[in-house]
Recover the amino acids of this structure.
């Protein structure tokens, strides 16, 4: 599996030289494109196609890449499959003896499966709201402590009781 970073804040995983034709792998990658990660995992778990296991392995790798990046802090369940495709890899050419001295050609095809993840729009909105809720510090401003000193803490309840009566 290879990891490649793109500037749009996405995470990608790639499996190369998978022993399946690209045409068969494309049938499975088309099913998960645009879906959330939990939904894509469910689709792949119940798929009857053998290449679904390879696609699920790439999806797990992409989620692990997203969760392990310290600069992103992404949760795997909040991600969406934005890109999933299968390109043709090199074809292994083999031969089989046929009748009357002829030879039959056997093409063993391979493919490269790529899955790219990004955070869902709902997760981005929640992160932006959380960032807006936190107060921002100005540069060079001293840190303010929120805990009052012991002498201030002792005077505060006494002042409140006098003002109430």
């Amino acid at each position: 599996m290879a990891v490649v970073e793109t500037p749009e804040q996405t995470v990608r995983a790639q499996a190369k030289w998978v022993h399946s034709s690209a045409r068969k792998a494309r049938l499975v990658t088309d099913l998960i494109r645009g879906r959330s990660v939990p939904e894509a995992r469910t689709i792949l778990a119940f798929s009857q196609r053998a290449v679904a296991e390879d696609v699920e392995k790439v999806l797990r790798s992409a989620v692990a890449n997203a969760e392990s990046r310290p600069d992103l802090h992404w949760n795997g369940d909040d991600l969406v499959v934005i890109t999933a495709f299968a390109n043709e890899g090199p074809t292994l050419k083999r031969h089989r003896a046929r009748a009357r001295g002829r030879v039959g050609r056997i093409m063993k095809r391979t493919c490269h499966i790529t899955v790219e993840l990004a955070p869902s729009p709902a997760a981005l909105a929640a992160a932006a709201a959380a960032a807006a809720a936190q107060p921002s510090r100005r540069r060079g401003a001293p840190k303010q402590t929120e805990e009052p000193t012991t002498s201030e803490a002792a005077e505060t309840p006494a002042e409140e009781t006098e003002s109430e009566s």
Summary: The longest strand covers residues 79-88.
